[in-house]
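Need tokens for this chain, all 208 residues.
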Amino acid sequence: MKLNVLAAGCLLTAAVAMPAVAQTTVYTANLTGPNEDPPNSSPGIGTAMITINQDAGTMRVEESFSGLTGNVSASHIHCCTTTPHEGLAGVATVSPTFTGFPSGVMAGDYDHTFNMLDASSYNLPFLNANGGTAQGAFDALVGGINDGRAYANIHTMPEFPGGEIRGFLAPIPEPETYAMLLAGLAMVSMMAWRRRLLSCEDSGVRIG
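Here are the structure tokens for all 208 residues:
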């Protein structure tokens, strides 16, 4: 009876820990020259954090960069490469550059939220390749990011017009994921303990 109560308690804990479908997903990337294709020796570094809210149809872009060898000429997200985490892809987001992105500088910060249900938030070829609608383009972009086939890129002039630093976007695990993992581990441990207990009882060994 005690085992059944414990099992019910663990199942309840797991159910409570299981989150609802996340409204937002956060992705990050480390931007460097060696991450470019082909790689380069730029000393520049940067970070990109992309927050996507699929319910609201928005995408917040936060970037910070420094140490570039040239002046920024453009920045955007490219999607979708043939192979995850490598290769080249066309520009997916607004072209020629993110709205209001720092230009003509070697270091800076950026923070802007885009309405991804507005067709103007996309590069026209990417929009047309995905049904010609903002929703189709949004779905394709999110899918590409989730598959590891989209990267943030900062272009500079005159040496790196094709991109000085870039990085493939990857999701940040949500806190609820760890709660689910811990609940699952607790259930596995309880089941293993129960098997040992039953084995002992079958052997005539009394516990407790």
